[in-house]
Amino acid sequence: MIAHKCPHIQVTIVDMNQERIDAWNSETLPIYEPGLEEVVKACRGKNLFFSTDIDKAIVEADLIFVSVNTPTKKSGVGAGYAADLFYVESCTRRIASVATSSKIVVEKSTVPCRTAQSMRTILEANSRPGLRFDILSNPEFLAEGTAMSDLDKPDRVLIGSLSTPEGRAAQQSLIEVYSNWVPKEKVIGTGLWSSELTKLAANAILAQRISSINALSAICEVTGADVDEVAYACGLDSRIGPKFLKSSVGFGGSCFQKDILNLVYLSESLHLPEVADYWRQVITMNEYQKRRFAQTVVSSMFNTITNKKLAVLGFAFKKDTGDTRETPSATVCRFFRQENAKVSIYDPKVPEKQIFLDLTEPGVQDDSAVVKKQVTVCKSAMEACTGAEGICILTEWDEFKQLDWPAIYESMAKPAMVFDGRGILEADKLREIGFKVFSIGKGVNL
Ligand code: UDX
C-alpha cells in the first residue's frame, strides 16, 4: 500500500526464504487477498521490489519495518503462551551489525509490551559509533480478506514513540508517509508501550465480543431465543455497536488466540492472576463453542457418526482467504475423525495439500495414511455433499448461499441434515426443501 500510494518512496521487501520471494516476483503470489495482485503487479519493478538481499536493503533504507513472525512459544519458559521473539531479535541484531547510517526502526510485528525497549538496547549496544536508531511501534490492524481496503481506509494508524525530541521527530517521519493517503486525524501518536499494548488489547476485545455472543448462542439454543435477533437488538445500542457480534462455530486466524495467550502471559508475569484468568476465559469459551458444535452434530445424527459421510463446507478460518491458521474447521474435522466419520471437505481457496497438513500431525507420528482413508478433499460443494448424511457450514463463503440446495437434497442420504455453523443460510427455505436444519444459536429443532 505504501508503494501504491507513494510513488516517490522505494519499498523493498526482503525475506530469507528464496521460494517466497520468487513467488512474490512471479505471476502467482504466495497469498490470496482480494485486490492485492493488482497493486503488486502495478508497482513491482517500479518502486516495489522483492529480494533476498537483506543486507543491501538494510544499508539503503531510511526506515525499516520489522514484520516477522512472533509465534507462541512451543517450549521453554512461557511455552504455550508467550510470544517467541527470536525472529524480532535476530532482525534487530542484523540491522545493528549491517547498518552504515542512522535508521528509524519500526516494530510492525505484534509483540509483548516493552519489546521496543529491548530492540533499542540491542541496537545501541551493537551498532557502529555515531549511528542513531530510533524505534517506533506501528501495529497493524488489517484483517485478512479485507486487507487492501483496511490499509487503504484504516480506522486509525497508531504510531508509538519515545517522548524525547528524537522520538517525536522519528514519529513525524512515519506520519508523513501515512499522510500521503490517510487523513491526519486518523494518524494517532502515542507512547511506545501504549502502542504495543493497544494491538494486544484490540484483538483481545474483538475476540471477547465473539466469545460473548457465542456464550449467548448456547443459551439461545436451549431457550429457543434467536442469537441473531439478540445480537441485532444489542448492537443497536450505540455504546455496543453492531460489528463483531456474529455468532459462529468459533473464531480462528493467526492473531486472536495468539495475542490473548500473550496477554495472559503478560498478566501472569506482572503478577495479575485475576486479569490472566479473565482473558483466558475468552479462549476457553472458543474451545467450548467448537466442541459444542461438533457434539450437536453427533447428537442430532442419532448419537453416532461412525462411517457416516459428513460434508464440510469451508476450511479457511473466514471467507475470502485461503488461510487456515487456527481455523475452527480443523478442530471440528478432527473431532469428526475421532468419531470415525467419513469427512468430505470443500473450500474454494484452501489447497488440498494444506487441508491434509492441518489434519495430520507429521511431527508426532505419520498418520497421513489414516487421515486419507477418512478424509476426502473435493473440488466442489456438490461433490462433497453427494451421498452425505449431514452438511456442516464451517466458513461463511458467499457461494454456499447460492448452492443448488434442491439438487443437493436429492443427492443426499435421508434424513438430510444441515448444520450451519456460521448462520448464513435461510433455514426456513431449506426446511421447505426437506432438510433438517440446525443453525448456531437458534434452538435445536431438527
Ligand atoms: C484480526 C483483527 O480483526 C485485525 O484487526 C488484526 O489485525 C488481526 O486479527 P483476522 O484474524 O484477519 O483479523 O480476521 P477477523 O475478521 O478479525 O476474524 C477473526 C475470526 O473471528 C474469524 O474466524 C471470523 O470468522 C471470526 N468472527 C469474526 C466471528 O466468528 N464473528 C464475528 O462477528 C467476527
Automatic annotation (TrEMBL):
InterPro entries, A to Z: 6-PGluconate_DH-like_C_sf, NAD(P)-bd_dom_sf, UDP-Glc/GDP-Man, UDP-Glc/GDP-Man_DH_C, UDP-Glc/GDP-Man_DH_C_sf, UDP-Glc/GDP-Man_DH_dimer, UDP-Glc/GDP-Man_DH_N, UDPglc_DH_euk
UDP-glucose/GDP-mannose dehydrogenase C-terminal domain ranges (all copies): 311-427
Name of this protein: UDP-glucose 6-dehydrogenase
Catalytic activity line of the entry: UDP-alpha-D-glucose + 2 NAD(+) + H2O = UDP-alpha-D-glucuronate + 2 NADH + 3 H(+)
Superkingdom as given in the UniProt entry: Eukaryota
Pfam families: UDPG_MGDP_dh, UDPG_MGDP_dh_C, UDPG_MGDP_dh_N
Organism: Rhodotorula diobovata
Active site: C255 (nucleophile)
NCBIfam families per UniProt: NDP-sugDHase
